[in-house]
Write a structure and sequence with these properties.
By secondary structure, the protein is mainly β. It has three domains: 49 residues, no CATH class; 91 residues, OB fold (Dihydrolipoamide Acetyltransferase, E2P) (Beta Barrel), CATH 2.40.50; 88 residues, OB fold (Dihydrolipoamide Acetyltransferase, E2P) (Beta Barrel). The protein is built from three helices and 18 strands. The strands form four sheets. Strands 12, 13, 14, 15, 16, 17 and 18 form a seven-stranded mixed beta sheet that branches. A hairpin with a 2-residue loop joins strand 3 and strand 4. About 5% of the residues have low confidence.
Length: 306
């Protein structure tokens, strides 16, 4: 069974806590205690022993991975930047380093995104269960370059090809004009602002006057897509992804799609201006109307001439 924090609001203290399993009769069936939690690690039951592991595997068998590393027998080229690595040919075995921007399972269970100051890249694993790598985790990864879906990606054989180096603050999205969405920003974590031009299902389009961007919400369980209408001004953050030559932005966290202004909505009826000038105008209008009504009644009382 899986109990997610955002649905149960249950959380354990990082500085140590105790968890108990109690049956309907109030009897404690099982209990465990732990001291200070390790950042980005999971306390898992492996071989009947509670141990810390980097691999967080909700819904799957627990895995004991103390240190994601030991690149195996791969003979790789260590590149200075992600951009330098992406410029190498398909099939090249390289080692890159960077910080996690979009973590595993935020967009897919099979891949996540890593960036440095030069560029960003998708790290993909077809058959492994990716560990819980929070945004800001600095990793080193070794794998094979591929561009079979147009977007450049680093394909790793397993979690043994990932090494955790450090932890930093979660990266912030880079503010860009929509016209910049393309090869130069591929795989990067960006933020744009503009008006909705069209919306349908999980897809909508935003224009800022420089160009138009397609926004695709792939994970509704994570991303809250509000009801949008044409003309709404919005702010959207996400990963720039390319598929078969088409670029789109993929939001991957709550709050990545924000409505700034609901343009085009009908305004509520408002009372006339209640200031002094408005009251004087209203009084004069009423006075003139009363005078006219009085004059009309006086005219009807005059005798008719033969």
């Amino acid at each position: 069974m899986i109990f997610y924090r955002y649905t149960t609001n249950v959380a354990l203290n990082d500085n140590g806590d105790q968890a108990r399993l109690i049956d309907p009769g109030g009897k404690v069936v099982s209990m465990l205690s732990y001291e200070k939690a390790r950042r980005a690690e999971s306390y898992s039951l492996v071989d009947n022993t509670w141990q810390w592991t980097i691999a967080s595997t909700p819904g799957h068998e627990n895995l004991l991975i103390r240190n994601i590393g030991a690149f195996g027998a791969l003979d790789s080229t260590v590149v200075s930047t992600i951009q330098a690595g992406k410029q190498m040919g398909d099939g090249a075995i390289i080692t890159i380093a960077g910080e996690v921007s979009a973590p595993p399972r935020s967009l897919s269970a099979r891949y996540f995104y890593v960036q440095d100051d030069s560029a960003a890249i998708q790290v993909y694993c077809h058959s492994c269960i990716l560990p819980e790598l929070i945004p800001g985790t600095v990793i080193q990864a070794t794998g094979k370059l591929s561009g079979d879906t147009s977007e450049r990606r680093l394909i790793i054989a397993g979690t043994e090809n990932i090494y955790v180096l450090n932890y930093t603050e979660a990266p912030k999205p880079k503010k860009v004009d929509i016209v910049a969405i393309g090869e130069i920003t591929e795989s990067q974590y960006v933020i744009i602002r503009g008006k909705v031009t069209n919306t349908s299902g999980d897809t909508f389009y935003v224009s800022d006057g420089t160009s138009q961007a397609r926004i695709l919400v792939r994970n509704r369980s994570v991303v809250n897509k509000p009801t949008l209408r044409k003309g709404y001004e919005v702010e959207v953050a996400g990963i720039v992804s390319q598929y078969r030559g088409e670029f789109r932005i993929l939001p991957f966290s709550r709050g990545h799609v924000k409505i700034i202004h609901r343009t085009g909505q009908k305004q509520q009826n408002r009372l006339p201006n209640s200031g002094s000038s408005g009251l004087i105008s209203l009084a004069l209008t009423t006075l003139i109307w009363n005078i006219l009504q009085l004059a009309k009644r006086q005219l009807t009382k005059l005798p008719k001439r033969c």
